[in-house]
Write a structure and sequence with these properties.
There is one protein chain. This protein has 2 domains: 193 residues, Lyase, Ornithine Decarboxylase, Chain A, domain 1, CATH 2.40.37; 266 residues, TIM Barrel. Helices cover 36% and strands 21% of the residues. The chain is built from 14 helices and 23 strands. The strands form 4 sheets. Strands 4, 15, 16, 18, 19, 20, 21, 22 and 23 form a 9-stranded mixed beta sheet that branches. Strands 5-6-7-8-9-11-12-14 form an 8-stranded parallel barrel, surrounded by 5 helices. Helix 7 links the parallel strand 8 and strand 9. Helix 7 runs parallel beside helix 8 and helix 9 packs parallel to helix 11. The longest helix is centred in the first third of the chain and has 28 residues. The protein is globular, with a radius of gyration of 25 Å. The structure holds pyridoxal-5'-phosphate.
C-alpha cells in the first residue's frame, strides 16, 4: 500500500518536472530579444542605433570605445515617472536617490536638479553629496558599516536622518551629537520577514529593532523619528513590498504604544526592478551551464511604478487615514528604477573565432571588469551597426580579459557580425559604474546626450591614471605623454580602421 502511494507521488513529481521543462522550453523558443523601442531607441537609414537623436556609431567614433552613453531625457523621464506615481496618491512623498547605484556626479546632479534627496551609504558618498552642494537637511545616511569619521561628519553638518543599522551605532551617533551639541534625527533599519537580512538592519521579530528604540530613548541628543527598510534590488513583484510595508507599519504602532515614539518618516528603501532586466534564476544558471542562453526577459512581468504606488499608498492610508494629520513623510530610495534604462555600454567587436565544435565566439573590447552585472542579470544586447539586419546567427560574446569567466552572452541570437562592428549592452545604468575595476584595462568614458549635445561626464582613464597612485620609479618619463593619450588613441584607431 505504502509503496503504491510512493509510486503515485513519484509519477506526479516526474510529471510536474516535465511540465515545468516544457514551459521553460517554450519560453526559450519565444526569445526574440527586446526591440530598441523599449529604450526609446530607433534605427536610422544607415542601419545604426539612434538614441535621443544621436547616431551611437558616430558617438563611438568620436569618443572611442568602450563607451557609456547616458540619455538625459530618459533619466529625467524615469525619475519624474517614479516620483509622480507616488506623489499623485500621497503628496507627502520624497525621493532619495541611491548614490551607490550610479555614482557619476553628472548623473546625480540631474536628479538633484529634478528634486531628489541624497541617499548615501558611505563616508565617500556623504562627502560627494556635500561637494555637490546638497544641503545637509536633504541627505539621508544609511549603510551597515558607518565609520566614526563618517558619523561625525554627518552629525556635525546636521544631515536630516541617520538610519541605524546596529545597536552600537546608536551610542556612536549619540556620542558625536553630544560632542557637537546637536540633536540628531535617527531611524532604525528594520528586517522584516521578506527581503535582505544577514548583515543588514535589526530584526523586528527578534526584538532587536525595539531594543534600538529603547536605547535611543536613553540619549537626549537623539530624536527617534524614522523607520527604514531596504529589501533587495531588481524586485519585480509588488507583493514583497506590501508584506514588508505591513509589518513595518505594525511595528510603528508597537513602537508608539510601548515607548511613546511617533514615527514621522517612513523610508521604504529602493530595489524596484525595471521591465527590461531581470535577475538570473536557477533555470538561467542551468541553461547557461548547458551552453544555452538564459530565458527571455518578459517585459510585461515587471510591476510598474504606478502599481507599486497604488499598493503601497493604499496600505499606508489604512494605517494613517488621509484625515489624520499624523501621517508620516514616505521616502523611497530608488536607484535602478531611475538610472538603469537611461544608460548603455557600447563595445566594439575585436575578433570572431570558431572553436573546436564550430561555435562562433566574438571578442569585444570590454570585459566583465566593466560589465559585472552580466554575471547575475539577464540584459539585452543590441546591434549598433547593422541594427536592421536579420538576426539569423548565434554567438558567444566574450570580453578581452584573458580569463575563462569573461563571458557576457551565451548562444545569443544576433545579426551576422564582423570585426569593427559595434554593439550596446542595454540597461548599463545600474551597478555597472560602481562595480567597475581595471583588470589590465583603463575604465571607459561616459558621455551624456541631451538636446543635441553630447557632453563627457567622465573621461576615459588613461594608462597613467591607472598607475597614478602607485609609488614606483619611472624610467621613461618622456613616455608619459604618449601613455596618457594611448587609451583614447587606441580606440580611435580601431574605429577608423573599421
Ligand atoms: C539602503 C539602500 N537603499 C537603496 C538602494 C537602491 O537599490 P536599487 O538600486 O535596487 O533601487 C540600495 C541598494 O542596494 C540600498 O542598499
Amino acid at each position: 500500500m505504502l509503496s503504491a502511494t510512493k509510486g503515485v507521488v513519484k509519477k506526479m513529481l516526474i510529471r510536474s518536472v516535465h511540465a515545468r521543462n516544457e514551459r521553460e522550453r517554450s519560453r526559450l523558443q519565444q526569445n526574440n530579444g527586446i526591440a530598441p523601442a523599449a529604450w526609446g531607441a530607433s534605427v536610422n537609414a544607415a542601419g545604426h542605433l539612434v538614441i535621443d537623436g544621436f547616431d551611437i556609431a558616430a558617438l563611438a567614433t568620436e569618443f572611442g570605445t568602450p563607451l557609456h552613453v547616458v540619455s538625459h531625457a530618459r533619466l529625467l523621464a524615469d525619475y519624474v515617472r517614479f516620483e509622480s506615481s507616488f506623489k499623485k496618491l500621497y503628496p507627502k512623498t520624497a525621493i532619495g536617490y541611491s548614490y551607490k547605484t550610479n555614482p557619476l556626479p553628472g548623473v546625480i546632479k540631474v536628479l538633484h536638479d529634478a528634486g531628489a534627496l541624497a541617499e548615501v551609504i558611505s563616508h565617500f558618498e556623504l562627502w560627494l553629496a556635500l561637494e555637490l552642494g546638497v544641503s545637509p537637511e536633504r541627505i539621508i545616511f544609511n549603510g551597515p558599516g558607518k565609520t566614526r569619521d563618517a558619523i561625525e561628519l554627518a552629525v556635525n553638518r546636521g544631515i536630516s536622518m541617520i538610519n541605524v543599522d546596529g545597536l552600537a551605532e546608536v551610542d556612536e551617533i549619540a556620542r558625536a551629537a553630544l560632542a557637537a551639541r546637536r540633536t540628531q534625527n535617527v531611524g532604525v533599519r528594520v528586517i522584516t520577514s521578506v527581503g535582505w537580512s544577514s548583515q543588514f538592519g535589526l530584526s523586528i521579530a527578534a526584538g532587536h529593532a525595539m531594543e534600538a528604540f529603547r536605547r535611543m530613548r536613553r540619549h537626549a541628543q537623539l530624536l527617534p523619528v524614522g523607520l527604514h527598510f531596504h529589501l533587495g534590488t531588481g524586485i519585480r513583484d509588488v507583493s514583497i513590498y506590501l508584506q514588508a510595508v505591513r509589518e513595518t507599519l505594525e511595528f510603528a504602532q508597537a513602537v508608539r504604544s510601548e515607548l511613546g515614539v511617533h514615527i514621522t518618516q517612513l523610508d521604504l528603501g529602493g530595489g524596484f526592478g525595471v521591465s527590461t532586466v531581470r535577475p538570473f534564476t536557477e533555470w538561467d544558471t542551468r541553461l547557461t551551464l548547458n551552453g544555452r542562453p538564459p530565458g527571455p526577459v518578459d517585459v510585461q512581468a515587471a510591476a510598474q511604478p504606478e502599481e507599486y504606488a497604488r499598493g503601497i499608498v493604499d496600505l499606508v492610508l489604512k494605517y494613517y487615514p488621509a484625515s489624520a494629520n499624523t501621517s508620516p513623510i514616505v521616502i523611497f530610495e530608488p536607484g535602478r528604477a531611475i538610472t538603469s534604462s537611461a544608460q548603455c555600454l557600447v563595445l566594439r567587436v575585436l575578433a570572431i573565432k570558431e572553436d573546436r565544435s564550430g561555435v562562433s565566439n566574438v571578442i569585444l573590447d570590454g570585459g566583465k571588469n566593466i560589465a559585472m552585472p552580466l554575471g547575475y542579470e539577464v540584459h539585452e544586447l543590441l546591434a549598433v551597426t547593422g541594427a536592421a539586419d536579420a538576426r539569423d546567427c548565434s554567438y558567444n560574446f566574450y570580453g578581452p580579459l584573458c580569463h575563462p569567466g569573461d563571458l557576457h552572452f551565451r548562444s545569443k541570437v544576433f545579426r551576422k557580425v564582423k570585426e569593427g562592428d559595434l554593439v550596446a549592452i542595454m540597461d548599463a545604468g545600474a551597478y555597472f559604474i560602481p562595480n567597475q575595476m581595471n583588470f589590465s584595462h583603463p575604465r571607459p568614458a561616459v558621455v551624456m546626450v541631451d538636446d543635441g549635445r553630447a557632453t563627457i561626464l567622465r573621461q576615459r582613464e588613461s594608462f597613467d591614471d591607472v598607475v597614478r597612485l602607485d609609488q614606483w620609479e619611472r624610467t621613461h618619463r618622456e613616455a608619459s605623454h604618449e601613455s596618457r593619450e594611448h587609451g583614447t588613441k587606441d580606440a580611435h584607431s580601431r574605429a577608423e580602421s573599421a
